[in-house]
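Input sequence (387 aa), recorded before submission:
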Amino acid sequence: MEVRARAPGKIILAGEHAVVHGSTAIAAAIDLYTYVSLRFPTPSDNDDTLKLHLKDMDFEFSWPVGRIQEAIPELGSLSASSPTSCSLEITRAIAALVEEQNIPEAKIGLASGVSAFLWLYIAIHGFKPAKATVTSELPLGAGLGSSAAFCVALSAALLSLSDSLQLDFSHQGWQMFGESELDLVNKWAYEGEKIIHGRPSGIDNTVSTYGNMIKFKSGELTRIKTNMPLKMLITNTKVGRNTKALVAGVSERTTRHQSAMAAVFNAVDSISNEVAAIIQSPVSDDLAITEKEEKLEELMEMNQGLLQCMGVSHASIETVLRTTLKYKLASKLTGAGGGGCVLTLLPTLLSGTVVDKVIADLETNGFQCLTAGIGGRGLEISFSGTS
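Predicted structure, token format:
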């Protein structure tokens, strides 16, 4: 029996940075996925190791289960149906197990993800041999929720082969979880995100689990559903950024210019709420969709202008903005800024020829371009083999 889970990445459609200062923000799932397949060996395989294969990067990590048990002898009474945080003691033991894998210095950023894998696996399945294989359509570290998609897909695969979920193994093709199962997956994925990010907001894993869109303000997450098809060009500038430093920079600017920045944050809040209202309102025909897209383009441009006021743009982002503007397309940064990714709305009536030209123009700058549907499905699983 093999289970395969897929979980989508995410974008911030409106409200990044301002959300830290009390404004509303909108996050949406994108139809670019991370896939995790999980298989337990049969007795005839005579395999007593736990393996993690990061296929895209051509990395494979393996640990004899006896070595894991030796490093972490006392797990306590863990249950797959009760998501649990990793203790400091076990965190240290896992770090030692990861260190033994001799990850190259250039790829040391993978260590936190490998640690999250070990914790989620051990917490849900204990000391059993297995092989997990990971592939992804999401660029790493670009602000598209790649780590959350990994944690969500991994948690789903692990839980699917545990006793905590009752699933239909005979179902052909991709299937969705029910609400209670999604809730359990989301909670476990959040525990994995904590290992990777320390104090994550929970937004990325929630969007990846449930799909569609989320409106969030002051720690409150509200799931919303778009009533119109939205397609974006996502341009990865490939410029790394320091999210903590960018967030701190906005806070420092807010301290220096309190009333001006308060006005900026209020404006962002209004934009986010208007975006939410537009995407949730009924659509009657193509004309209505076109009118809505025009409004969204204006709101994206306004949001980008306010992000520039916050000081989180970057030369690479400005290059994308100038390039897409030549084709009369609206763009904004998504996420932390300072590099990372830029969103460009692709209107329904835009020809494929124009899209190809835009992409070719952007790629001459060394950028990576991806097209994605916005606000689509969340986590799904499929099974193969016999139970």
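Checked by second reader. The CA atoms of residues 66 and 127 lie 8 Å apart.
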